[in-house]
């Protein structure tokens, strides 16, 4: 197994660790900040989860670059890389939605899109066609990752300015998600529609 694929699998392994830490580990208060007359308490567990999420996100950037530069692009890599991304990002978004930190409708739309795209990819794969993640999908993933980082940071430092940057990124990611889903459908509609 090559290095990019190992990095993708490492990202998959980090997902349950992040979820367990987020849900069940109370490591105590790290610090408090006063934002617009409200005290925001940041827990050590939030900081640890944020660091692990940042590491996982960096492996996403790293595995793709290494695969392209060293000519290590494989069908397995094209398959596992987007799955690792979706597991990581969707798990975080679901955790945030449960805690009312992001709008549930945005999370539902993004998960619907991922489910439809996965179905399209499986149909295409059955016909011997492997479709790598395109630029709209990558933009969607980057927006989601920034949204997650700002949610974890309680929108700091933008909270001091009254700018809901976390929500801006969430809705930007939702729009990019819908658009990239349409792009995937247009690429693969012939494969899917031929059996109708």
From TrEMBL:
A Pfam cross-reference name: CDP-OH_P_transf
Gene Ontology molecular function, alphabetical: CDP-diacylglycerol-glycerol-3-phosphate 3-phosphatidyltransferase activity
Membrane-spanning intervals of the chain: 12-35, 47-66, 87-112, 142-161, 168-186
Protein localization: Membrane
GO terms of biological process kind: phosphatidylglycerol biosynthetic process
Metabolic or biological pathway: Phospholipid metabolism; phosphatidylglycerol biosynthesis; phosphatidylglycerol from CDP-diacylglycerol: step 1/2
UniProt membrane topology term: Multi-pass membrane protein
Gene Ontology CC entries for this record: membrane
Family: Belongs to the CDP-alcohol phosphatidyltransferase class-I family.
Protein name according to UniProt: CDP-diacylglycerol--glycerol-3-phosphate 3-phosphatidyltransferase
Record lineage: Bacteria, Bacillati, Bacillota, Erysipelotrichia, Erysipelotrichales
């Amino acid at each position: 197994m090559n290095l990019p694929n190992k990095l993708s699998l490492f990202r998959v392994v980090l997902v349950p660790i992040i979820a367990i830490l987020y849900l069940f580990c109370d490591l105590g208060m790290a610090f408090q900040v006063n934002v617009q007359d409200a005290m925001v308490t940041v827990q050590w567990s939030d900081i640890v989860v944020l660091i692990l999420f940042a590491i996982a996100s960096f492996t996403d950037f790293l595995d793709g670059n290494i695969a392209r530069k060293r000519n290590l692009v494989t069908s397995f890599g094209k398959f596992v890389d987007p799955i690792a991304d979706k597991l990581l990002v969707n798990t975080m978004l679901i955790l945030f939605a449960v805690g009312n930190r992001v709008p549930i409708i945005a999370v539902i739309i993004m998960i619907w899109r991922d489910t439809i795209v996965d179905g399209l990819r499986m149909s295409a794969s059955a016909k011997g066609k492997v479709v790598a993640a395109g630029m709209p999908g990558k933009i969607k993933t980057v927006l989601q990752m920034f949204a997650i980082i700002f949610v974890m940071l309680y929108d700091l430092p933008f909270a001091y300015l009254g700018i809901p940057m976390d929500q801006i990124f969430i809705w930007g990611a939702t729009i990019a998600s819908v658009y990239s889903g349409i792009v995937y459908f247009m690429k693969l509609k012939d494969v899917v529609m031929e059996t109708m």
